[in-house]
Amino acid sequence: xxxxxxxxxxxxxxxxxxxxxxxxxxxxxxxxxxxxxxxxxxxxxxxxxxxxxxxxxxxxxxxxxxxxxxxxxxxxxxxxxxxxxxxxxxxxxxxxxxxxxxxxxxxxxxxxxxxxxxxxxxxxxxxxxxxxxxxxxxxxxxxxxxxxxxxxxxxxxxxxxxxxxxxxxxxxxxxxxxxxxxxxxxxxxxxxxxxxxxxxxxxxxxxxxxxxxxxxxx
Length: 218
Fold this sequence. Notes:
Blueprint: E1 4-5, E2 23-24, E3 30-34, E4 47-50, E5 61-63, E6 68-72, H1 79-88, H2 100-118, E7 121-125, H3 137-156, H4 159-190, H5 195-206
Antiparallel strand pairs: 1-2, 3-4, 5-6, 6-7
Helix pairs in contact: 1-2, 3-4
């Protein structure tokens, strides 16, 4: 778990000891820890300030890149079978180590091994985190509708579903073309008097990539 003790100060001056150890395996998320000397008692107060992020973190999901994530497959998870696995796990074996960190690492490995048997990691393709600026909720909804029809056709092979899919696909293509054209027209109008900005937009439309010049070795 890689836990780190973050309190390095004495919290009880009379005995010269630290009675408030604070552990974290994400030390970079702790912004500050303060132990002010206040003479109200022999035990000093301790304040820990944690950095806050608006993005929700999902512990069972790992993002590999913008296209794929790994997640715990809970579809066939059976809590009772998992409990039986935990009961059969040789937990006493962790106490062969003398160091606390080694005991904790050994316990974590046993627990993760049992977890892998019942809800292993799976890889799934997902949408890009940073969508194109012209993508709107309406377009996303249409794309999802198109994909749902294609999935339905692959499952049932119904000609009428295929016809509905082609209509939804063509509508999605038309929506993308129109919104993309409006987006770039608006950008060009905004940069009408900015030559550099105009060329930047043109390059993004045409897909031009600046090539770095390389000097051959003499």
